[in-house]
Amino acid sequence: MNTAARRLVRHPMPWVFLLFAVLPYLLPFIGGYTYLGTEVLIWSIFVLGFNILLGYTGLPSFGHGAFFGVGAFVMAILQLRIMQGMWLPMAISALAGALFGALVGLFVAKKRGIYFALLTIAFSQMFWFITWQWDTVTGGEDGLAGVNRTAIQLPGLPSIDLNDVTSFYYFVLVIFIICTLLIWTIVHSPFGRTLQAIRFNETRAKCIGYNTPLYKWLAFTVSCAFAGLAGALYTLLRNAAFADVMHWTQSGNAVMMVLLGGGMSNFFGPILGAAVFIVLRDLFSAFTEHWMLIYGLLFMFVIVFVPEGILGLFRGEEEQMDAPVSGK
Amino acid sequence: MPGLSELVAQIMNGLVLGLLYALIALGFMLIVGVMQVVNFSHGVLFAWGAYFALTLRPITGFWLALLISPLLVGIIGLLLEFPVRRTYGKDPLFGLLLTFGAAMALEEIIRIIWGSIGYTIPAPAFATGPINLLGLIPYSKYRLFLAGLGVVLIFLTWLFLEKTPYGAIIRAGAFDSEMIMTLGIDLRKMRTFVFGIGAALAGIAGVIAAPLWSVKPTIGAEAIMPAFVVVVIGGVGSFWGTVVGGILVGFVTGVSVMFMPRASQIVMYVLMALVLLIRPRGIMGERSILEQ
Amino acid sequence: MDILQTHRLTKRFNGLVAVDSVDIAIQANRLTSIIGPNGAGKTTFFNLLTGLLKPDNGTIVFEGNDITHLPPHRIVKQGIARSFQILNIFGDLSLFENIRIAAQSERGHGLEMLSSIHGLQEVTQATFSIIDAIGLRGKEQALAKNLSYGDRRVLEIGIALASHPKLLLLDEPTSGLASRDTGRMAEFIGLLSKTTTVVLIEHDMNIVLSISDHVIVLHQGRVIAQGTPDEVRRNDEVQDAYLGGL
User: Fold this and answer.
1) Which one of C143, C163, C183 terminates a domain?
2) For residues B163-178, b (16+ Cβ closer than 10 Å) or e, as one string?
3) What is the DSSP letter of A247?
4) Residues of B in contact with A252 (CB under 8 A)
């Protein structure tokens, strides 16, 4: 095998894609179902993008669910009120996420640590209340139902009906693959490396010439674009946008997914975290209506006993994202 | 246009709410300041205070419930501090997440014990009914009582922090743990104690707010969010910043209920955004540890 | 020719004057040392020069431009780089990355999001040449925090060098070094001063006297003496302030 092929085989990414490609066939064996798989993909897009901000830049946004919510609602509002179709609303949802992210980012870009976290929580609450109160636009308590998925028309092929659960899964999978490759590129770019430097020593990053608030703002905005896109996909999944996407627990869940999977030190951590999280939630809620208690205790358990996350357990002492750069 | 008595009553409501917010935020701020831990479960502890009062009141009457309930919540706080310990000195994310999980668990336990429906709890007999302000304007006796109690509690907290040696240690510990340790003071015990005190403050706020806010599992979230906003507006690490911030937020919220009721819950966030634009550190914020 | 001038530069902390109306001129292509007892305001002075602190009064002029109120990242772009007294490296990044990220900034590639760092040939070459200059070839893969203290001190300067500065500010670069390493550091700094203007904060008098062209003495935030090393050594006020036993 030549070196290029060898490198490809050793890289986790093709394997991850492969696994997800066959997942709908594997899921029934573990008591799962395709819808669950689609959820995992959608949340993976969300938290991979979120991890640009959290894992790579080290900024603990505890209100990122709000941008997921923005995407979800913009998708619904556009399709129900303003335009037909799916692609354009999706794109606009991602842009909306980015736009709101850019706005909030202006307030938080110069902060870090707990202060940063507090601010993002407060802003996300603002979004929550607006969603609830502005019910003429968002449907308030009832949300907005009736969103549909348009069939895909590829030239020369029969149209693909996305209402079929499996078809929709593969549709989302393609978007997931594109997003994952995009995010991989971003975090391994010069920009991405700068974000890491800011995470590990912001002062020194300034003193070597980086306008760090600008970078933080950009990281924030970019991560919100992915959040918005994921939110739009979620609306398509449920064929509706409900206010629960804006609830503060969504933001906490996102952070938990990153941490649980080991996203603070590994690119793929968020994906693993999202998968474990969603599967467990499904499991627990099947058992008892008080699954929140088990959930909350699980959070606490992970933080106390496995703070480096699942993939972090395989990591050892190094905290730097992925392998050290060596110039080879 | 609201009449004068309505206006005055609403302003009073705002101030009363403000005092309550200030009280809640103080307990929260104590833990943030001393341990740099954002205690997400602070709101749920507030709820626990209300629920303990709900259960105790018929048995012990108002005043004993007011005393015992915060003690019980304080104990929960002391217990909570054990897992929180693991997060000291680490990325603030860990403390946030841990207390976030605790908040979820604690809220669910409330639902298991007391159910999800809300209860109303009446004001104590001596504070029921209206009273006439300045002989002209009818106002809720209980709210006045709450305001008075709030002032007393805030004053007692201030007294404790400023005038007692233990309070001085706590204030110093917020900024210089090395010094604390060299003085031979057990840092661990101090932190546990502070967590307990912060929780107790949340608990007592829950007791006195209960007749006003009713007692349901979600009041925790209703209590914690203003606490975040107050701390950001008032400036981290500042006692008076928290008090002034709390009163300001409560006042603005209370008054906006009159003019734009649907936006009243959002007003505090708008206020926060404005304050941040003009004074990024908060009204009385100092260069804070939280920015590290 | 003066590359840097400060006029009445002042900084107060809560009533305490850390830097008191300081007028200093740094000549280009010379090695200037700043000495003084602890608390004399030396590091504060550096912090003011590099934009980490805002002065309460006074101006800083670099190459004829007023840089007094510029933020740190803009001051670096003007051509001033600085190393820190307390190690301020990127401990969790590799040695290579520590330098590369600084070189990347210098070349202006920070905002490129969709390309790979491996395409930045210039940056990689610049990184290797700095690593060679500081004598740490072969250790590129090591995490910075796992390097020996001496190597980390050298890295501390290397990061500043990667910014290709016209003026290099070194804050107690020999701090905590064993005497054998101190000598090599001094040699290294001497070499640097041949191509860059260097301002050095130093406690080690031997170094100061042997490699400095010019010495400035700070005490309680004020300049109490300056001149050649010999002149300063013989100055009574300086001897009183803290030298003793030279």
Assistant:
1) C163
2) eeeebebbbebbeebe
3) S
4) 40, 97, 100
Whose tokens are 């706590």? That residue is B170
Is C143's CB within 8 Å of A320's CB?
Answer: yes
Distance CA C170, CA C83 (A): 5
pLDDT number for residue C144: 93
C-beta separation of C90 from A204 below 8 A:
yes
The residue from C103, C131, C163 where one domain ends is: C163
Contacts of A126 in chain B (CB under 8 A): 266, 269-270
ipTM at complex level: 0.92
For the record, the structure tokens of B15 come out as: 């101030």
Cβ of B97 within 8 Å of Cβ of A256? The answer is: yes
Low-confidence residues of chain B: pLDDT under 50: 288-292
Residue C132 has pLDDT above 90, yes or no: yes
Which of residues A25 and A92 earns the better pLDDT score? A92
Structural domain boundaries enclosing C33: 1-79+165-246
For the ranges A12-16, A237-241, B233-237, C203-207, which has the lowest average pLDDT?
B233-237
- Residue C84 forms part of a structural domain: no
In a domain, C190, yes or no: yes
**CA–CA distances in Å: residue B61 to residues B55, B64, B211:** 10, 6, 14
- Residues C71 and C179 reside in one and the same domain: yes
Whether residue A30 has pLDDT greater than 60: yes
Digit-coded pLDDT (tens) for B214-263: 899 989 988 888 998 898 888 777 788 889 999 999 999 988 888 888 78
Residues C69 and C185 in one domain: yes
Residues of chain A contacting residue C141, judged by C-beta atoms under 8 Å apart: 324, 326
**What is the domain-level CATH number for residue C63?**
3.40.50.300
**Which of C82, C140, C160 is closest, CB to CB, to A327?**
C140
How many whole angstroms separate alpha carbon A267 and alpha carbon B124?
A: 57
Contact C100 A327 (CB under 8 A): yes
Chains B and C touch (3+ CB pairs under 8 A): no
Flag whether residue A123 sits within 8 Å of chain C, measured between CB atoms.
no
Q: Is residue C240 part of a domain?
A: yes
Residue C198, amino acid: V
How many domains does chain C divide into?
Answer: 2
Instruction: Tell whether C95 and C30 lie within a shared domain.
Output: no
Contact present, C9 and C21 (Cβ < 8 Å): yes
| Structure confidence by residue, pLDDT tens digits, A171-182 | 999 999 999 999
Q: Are residues C197 and C213 in the same domain?
A: yes
Instruction: Please give the pLDDT value at position B162.
Output: 82
